[in-house]
Amino acid sequence: MKKLIKQIPLIFCILSIISCKFDTEVSKKTIEGKEIPIDSTIPGDPKIEAFIAPFKEHLNKTLDSTLAYNPHVLSKGEKGMNTGIGNLMADIVMKQATPIFKSRTGNNIDFVLLNYGGIRSELNKGPVTTRDAYNMMPFENQIVIAELSGEKVEALLRYLEKAKSAHPVSGIKIKMNKEYKVTSAMINGKPINPEQNYFVATSDYLQQGGDNMSFFSNPVNLYDTDYKLRNAIIDYFQKIDTIKAKQDDRFIKE
Questions:
Q1: 65-253 sits in which CATH class?
Q2: Is 151 within 8 Å of 194 (Cβ atoms)?
Q3: Nearest alpha carbon to residue 77 among 28, 121, 41
C-alpha cells in the first residue's frame, strides 16, 4: 500500500502527459464543409413532380380565384402619414374583428394600430385574388385586442412621433406638426382621457414587442380573437365587390 501511495505522483505525471498528447492531436484535426445551394439548378424528381401536380393545380386555382376588384394601385410608397393600403388593412381589422370582440366581451374596439413594415406588397389594379392577400400578409400573425390605460396610449403617441412612419390606424385621428409632435389625438371623436382604458386591436407580433412597440407590454387585459390577419383580409375581400381605399385625414402632418 505504501509503495502504491509513493507512486501516485508518478501516475499523475503520466496521465498529464497522455492528456496533453491527446489534446494536441485533437487540435490538429480540422472539419471542412461547403455550402450546397438549394435552388432551380437542382433538377426535380419526375416522380415527385407528377405526384404533387394535381395538388399544385388545385392550390393555384384557389389562390388565383377572383375575390374583389381594385380600381387603382394601392402602395405604401405614398407620401404622408397614411396610405390607402395601410388604411385598408387597419379598416379591415376594425370591421372584421369588432363583431368577434363584441360577441365575446360586450365591448367595442376603440382603435387599430398596425405597423408600416407589416405591409409586404402593393395591391395592383384589377382583380384581387387570395394570392394577393397572401402577398400582403405572408405571416401567420393573429389579431389581438390589448386593453391599454390612457397612459399607455400616450406612450403609443410618443412612439409614433419617433417612428415618423405611416403606421396604419383606424378609429383614431392624429395630427402632427412639422416636427412630428402630436398636436391632437381623438378617439371616437373625443380627446384621450388619461383615466380611461382603451381597447386597441393589433397583431400578436406587435403586442409581443415587435417593431419596438413596448407600450403594448403588460396590458390591463389581452384578448385573442383566434383570427389571423390574413384570413380577415380574405374574408373582407369576399364580402365586397369593389375596394374603396384612399389616403384621408386620419393621420396627418400639418
A1: alpha beta
A2: yes
A3: 121
